C-alpha cells in the first residue's frame, strides 16, 4: 500500500506518468471497435425485454425439486409461449420464478393451474402476477424520458461549470458507456427489467463523477495557461489524468468489488433473480465509465482545445522555446518572458536570480569588551 501511495504522490507531482493524450488515437480505436461490436450484437440479437416492458405474467412456486429445464418445459407447454425460469435460493427444494410473456388473464389462470398440477403442489401455492402490455410501454417511455432528461441536465451543468468542450466530451463518454452496457446485455442475453434501468442510471452518475474530477483538476491547472511557455494544453491535460489516476482506480475497484459479489455470487450461485439484471449493468457500466473518463473524455477535450487559435499559438511558443533552450545547451537557470524555471523538480521553487541581502549575524560583536565595538 505504501508503494501505491508513493506512486500516487509521484503521479500527482508529475515526476512519473503515462502519456494518455499522445496515444489517444489508440484509445479511440479500441473504443470504436468495442462500440461497433456492441451495436452489431444489439442489432443481431436484440434485447431480452422483461414482462415489465412487453406484458405477461410471473409465477412463483413453492419449494420444489423440479429442475429449471423441466419447469421451463412445463410452462411453455401450458402457455404456448417462451418462458424464462429462474431458481431462487439453493438446495434441492429451491423456489422457482417462472416468467411468461404475451399472455392475458385467462391464459395466466390456465398456466397457473397446469403448473400446480405438474409440480405436484396446490394451485393456491402458485402465486401469479399479471403485467399488462400498456403498463410495460409506459415504463419503457418513462425510462427513456428519464435518460434524456439526465443527459440534458448533465450537458447544461458541465457547460456552465466548466465549458462547452468539456460538456461535449462528457456527453460522448456517457453515450459510449450506455452503448457498451446495452450491447453487453444483448450479447449475454440477460433480461432487461426496471432493475436494469436503475443500474444504468446509477453507473452514469459514477462515470460522470470520475470525469468531473479530472475536469476540475484540468480547469485549475489551465488558469492563465497562455501566460506561460512551458506546457501545452495537451500536456497539462495529461498531467491532470495522471494526477487523479490512482484516485480513479481506487474508487472504481472499491465500487466493483461489492457489485462483483452481487453478480457472481448473489446472481450466479444463489440465483437471486433481479440481482442479475441490476448487477450486470452496474459491473459493466462502472468499468466502462472508468475507462471513458481516463481514455476518452479528457483526451477529447484536449483535441477540441488544441484547435483554438490561442492554443495553437501557445503550442508554437512552447515548441520554439524548447528548441531555443536545446540549442543553448543545458543551463542552471532558464529564464523565459514570464517566469524563471530551474532544472530541478517541476514543483520546486523558481530559481533566484541576482544578489540576496544577507541577514545580520546574531554573533556580531560577541566576545568583545563592552563599549569597544568596531
Topology:
Layout: H1 2-13, H2 24-45, E1 48-49, H3 51-54, E2 56-60, H4 68-79, E3 83-88, E4 95-101, H5 105-119, E5 127-131, H6 133-161, H7 164-188, E6 191-192, H8 194-221, H9 233-267, H10 274-305, H11 309-328, E7 333-335, E8 340-342
Parallel strand pairs: 1-6
Antiparallel strand pairs: 2-4, 2-5, 3-4, 7-8
Helix pairs in contact: 1-9, 2-7, 2-10, 4-5, 6-7, 6-8, 7-8, 7-10, 8-9, 8-10, 9-10
Strand residue percentage: 5-15%
Radius of gyration: 31 Å
Share of helix, binned? 55-70%
Order of helices and strands: HHEHEHEEHEHHEHHHHEE
Largest sheet: 4 strands, antiparallel
Mean pLDDT: 77
How many strand segments?
Answer: 8
Q: Biggest sheet, strands in spatial order?
A: 3-4-2-5
Shape type = elongated
How does this structure look, described?
By secondary structure, the protein is α+β, with helices and mostly antiparallel strands. The protein contains 11 helices and 8 strands. The protein has helices spanning 2-13, 24-45, 51-54, 68-79, 105-119, 133-161, 164-188, 194-221, 233-267, 274-305, 309-328; strands spanning 48-49, 56-60, 83-88, 95-101, 127-131, 191-192, 333-335, 340-342. The protein has a 4-stranded antiparallel beta sheet with strand order 3-4-2-5. Strands 1-6 form a two-stranded parallel sheet. A hairpin with a 6-residue loop joins strand 3 and strand 4. Residues 332-365 and 369-374 have low confidence and may be disordered.
Amino acid at each position: 500500500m505504501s508503494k501505491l501511495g508513493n506512486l500516487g504522490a509521484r503521479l500527482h507531482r508529475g515526476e512519473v506518468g503515462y502519456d494518455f493524450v499522445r496515444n489517444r488515437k489508440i484509445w479511440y480505436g479500441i473504443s470504436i471497435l468495442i462500440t461497433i461490436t456492441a451495436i452489431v450484437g444489439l442489432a443481431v440479437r436484440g434485447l431480452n425485454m422483461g414482462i415489465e416492458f412487453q406484458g405477461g405474467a410471473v409465477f412463483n412456486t413453492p419449494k420444489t425439486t423440479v429442475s429449471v429445464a423441466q419447469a421451463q418445459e412445463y410452462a411453455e407447454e401450458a402457455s404456448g409461449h417462451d418462458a424464462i425460469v429462474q431458481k431462487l435460493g439453493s438446495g434441492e427444494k429451491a423456489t422457482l420464478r417462472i416468467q411468461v410473456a404475451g399472455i392475458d388473464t385467462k391464459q395466466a389462470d390456465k398456466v397457473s393451474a397446469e403448473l400446480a398440477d405438474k409440480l405436484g403442489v396446490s394451485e393456491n401455492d402458485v402465486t401469479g402476477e399479471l403485467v399488462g402490455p400498456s403498463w410495460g410501454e409506459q415504463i419503457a417511455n418513462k425510462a427513456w424520458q428519464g435518460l434524456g432528461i439526465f443527459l440534458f441536465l448533465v450537458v447544461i451543468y458541465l457547460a456552465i461549470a466548466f465549458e462547452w468542450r468539456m460538456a461535449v466530451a462528457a456527453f460522448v463518454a456517457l453515450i459510449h458507456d450506455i452503448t457498451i452496457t446495452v450491447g453487453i446485455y444483448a450479447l449475454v442475453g440477460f433480461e432487461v427489467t426496471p432493475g436494469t434501468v436503475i443500474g444504468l442510471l446509477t453507473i452514469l452518475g459514477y462515470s460522470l463523477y470520475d470525469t468531473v474530477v479530472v475536469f476540475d483538476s484540468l480547469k485549475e491547472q489551465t488558469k492563465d495557461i497562455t501566460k506561460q511557455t512551458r506546457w501545452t494544453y495537451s500536456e497539462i491535460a495529461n498531467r491532470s489524468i495522471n494526477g487523479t489516476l490512482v484516485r480513479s482506480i481506487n474508487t472504481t475497484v472499491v465500487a466493483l468489488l461489492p457489485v462483483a459479489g452481487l453478480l457472481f455470487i448473489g446472481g450466479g450461485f444463489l440465483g437471486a433473480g433481479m440481482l442479475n439484471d441490476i448487477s450486470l449493468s452496474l459491473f459493466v457500466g462502472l468499468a466502462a465509465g472508468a475507462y471513458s473518463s481516463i481514455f476518452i473524455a479528457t483526451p477529447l477535450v484536449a483535441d477540441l482545445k488544441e484547435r483554438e487559435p490561442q492554443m495553437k499559438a501557445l503550442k508554437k511558443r512552447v515548441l520554439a522555446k524548447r528548441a531555443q533552450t536545446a540549442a543553448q545547451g543545458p543551463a542552471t537557470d532558464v529564464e523565459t518572458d514570464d517566469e524563471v524555471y530551474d532544472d530541478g523538480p517541476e514543483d520546486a521553487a523558481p530559481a533566484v536570480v541576482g544578489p540576496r541581502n544577507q541577514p545580520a549575524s546574531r554573533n556580531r560583536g560577541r566576545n568583545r569588551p563592552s563599549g569597544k565595538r568596531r
